Amino acid sequence: MIDLTNEEIRRYSRHLILPEVGMAGQRKIRNTSVLCIGAGGLGSPIAMYLAAAGVGKIGLVDFDTVDVSNLQRQILHTDADVGRSKAESAQETIAGINPNVEVALHKTRISSENALDLIAPYDIVVDGTDNFPTRYLTNDACVLLKKPNVYGSIFRFEGQASVFAPHLGGPCYRCLYPEPPPPGMVPSCAEGGVLGVLPGIIGCIQATEILKLALGKGSTLIGRLLLFNALDMKFRELKLRKDPKCPLCSANPSITALIDYEQFCGIVPEPKNPSENPDEVTVQDMKKALDNPSLGIRVVDVREPDEYAIAHVKGVPQLPLSVLPQRFTDLDPNVQYYLHCKGGVRSLKALRFLREQGFKYVKSVKGGIGAWSDQIDASVPKY
């Protein structure tokens, strides 16, 4: 290992005086490489604290661009970065924190085709993603390559963290969650919201676990799931054990290669041509229905009351998806309905539910109130 320079000794002095770190430990940190999947809410504190700590190489996997709605929690980015590549914005921020850190950009979506190649060169992988297909993909690739997977997840006011590393004696993500939830059962942060500081707390826990793994010190979260509730300011811990019948990390695995994770999670790919989905109509169709009551088409907003208070289309009544199973009898099954929400996800869920109840004349408004703001009435706020 190369000795630390005088500048590095000054920079990391508060590490060096820790007996558990010292010169030897700081050299270990500098010689560690970490692949951070996602440069968003969780990826922000993870990357920033790892850079400040002196991790030698940080890889960033992110294909997205910065949106103004990200700024409430994604502290890697600033108002000036809106519209920029998240990976490039993150690289610039990290360079400002510690120019000694090498940052490798992977401006691509991680997939079954590239995951093994992306992960193989790195010592540790940290999961900062927000969807189930990518979580299972990251887990499976890490198990196959024998890489520690530092996991974190956030939603509304709650978060969780663990370290999945079967090669170090612990379970994998599939041991905890053998099957993904049905599509749409767990809302995304875009649908359900997230407290802005929450990813900072969970991301810092993930960064702490990475440094402990690099140092080989302390008791990591391998075999433990840490749960945090911000409203109650309480931590709980669950013991995790390897599943002896796990299809991936057991003695006789049935999964020995990466699979189609969208299909595994029951996600149907969106059609390339919107007209290919017969269950959807456009916001222009919705406007025609509102402008011409004689058409006999009623528009219903299936968002929650708090969202309706933020923005709504005048004259459109509300029937939240959360109470639809109890109140669908308020609707007439012989009338045609256009259902809309924030972006078109929950309205499709409402459509499927009503179809199961015998409603034949139901359509979902593609893009929801966001598309309405973009294409029909810019005075309606986007959120």
Care to describe what's here?
This protein has 383 residues and is α/β, with parallel strands linked by helices. It has 2 domains: 32-264, Rossmann fold (3-Layer(aba) Sandwich); 274-375, Rhodanese-like domain (Oxidized Rhodanese, domain 1, 3-Layer(aba) Sandwich), CATH 3.40.250. 34% of the residues lie in helices and 16% in strands. The protein is built from 16 helices and 12 strands. It has helices spanning 6-11, 13-16, 22-30, 43-53, 86-97, 115-119, 132-145, 173-176, 189-192, 198-215, 261-264, 283-291, 305-310, 324-327, 345-356, 368-375; strands at 33-37, 57-61, 102-106, 124-127, 149-155, 158-164, 224-229, 234-239, 280-281, 297-301, 336-340, 362-365. It has an 8-stranded mixed sheet, sandwiched between helices. It has a 4-stranded parallel sheet with strand order 9-12-11-10.
Approximate strand percentage = 15-25%
The CATH superfamily of the largest domain turns out to be NAD(P)-binding Rossmann-like Domain
CATH class of the largest domain: Alpha Beta
How would the global form be characterised? elongated
Radius of gyration of CA atoms, rounded to a whole number:
24 Å
Q: What's the arrangement of strands in the largest beta sheet?
A: 3-2-1-4-5-6-7-8
Number of helical segments?
A: 16
Mean pLDDT: 94
Terminal residue distance: 50 Å
Q: How many domain units?
A: 2
Low-confidence stretches: none
Class inferred from helices and paired strands: alpha/beta
Helix content: 25-40%
- What is the CATH architecture term of the largest domain? 3-Layer(aba) Sandwich
In N-to-C order, the SSE pattern is HHHEHEHEHEHEEHHHEEHEHEHHEHEH
**CATH-assigned fold name of the largest domain:** Rossmann fold
